[in-house]
Amino acid sequence: MAVSDHLRRLRSITDTEGHTSDVDAHSREEHLADAVARGIQGGVVATLLMTAFRLPLLRSLPPSANFWSQYVAGGDPDDHPIPGIALHLLYGVSSGALFGGLFSLYTAGRSIEPEQRGLVWGSIYGMVLSAVGVQVVLQGLLDIRLEADELALFHAGHLVYGLSLGAWVGSRTEGVADPDREYEYDDGN
To answer: Measuring CA to CA, which residue among 136, 144, 156, 176 is closest to residue 35?
Structure first.
């Protein structure tokens, strides 16, 4: 057997190692499209949870209302609750789609359950979004400087988003076709 044949055989083994049969049966494009769809779903859920977390604590609309009033409609951010929430949801869904795609491309550490990977990477992703939100959106585009307590709640909200998104995407990465078998509900797990 030629060296090139050995390399092809080795590549075919490593390309599928740690993947479920569902992933192996789909093309990479189909797998990515499914992952982005899971990210969109998770983005909706995570944004709603984040918004439910932050609204009663900060008693204000998301900064997207400030963005809308400053760059689109003018006036006070409180005059634009619907566009502010809609824009916030759009950001969350878009970020969820990106996370779903990135999560599907991550192949290292396949020995870790997808739910665990989702929680870890989701929390990191949420905090990265929070840091970008503070530096680029709040301070850069909107010239908003949060007080320490507001900043802590801003970061906490994004952590809620990341954990929710990661849990959603991770829990739907494997076992979607047969969750009873995957999660062994009959065995008390």
So the answer is: 176
| CB of 111 closer than 8 Å to CB of 18 | yes
Question: Could you read off the pLDDT of 60-75 as tens digits, one per residue?
Answer: 778 888 999 989 998 8
Going by C-alpha positions, the residue among 133, 142, 129 that lies closest to residue 98 is: 129
How many Å apart are CA 136 and CA 116, to the nearest integer? Answer: 30
What are the pLDDT digits (tens) for 5-51?
544 544 444 444 444 544 455 577 888 889 999 999 999 999 999 99
Round to whole Å and give the CA distance between 93 and 145: 25
Q: Select from 120, 135, 125, 136 the least CA-distant residue to 158.
A: 125
* CA-wise closest residue to 103 among 81, 112, 78: 112
Question: What residue has token string 């030629």?
Answer: 2
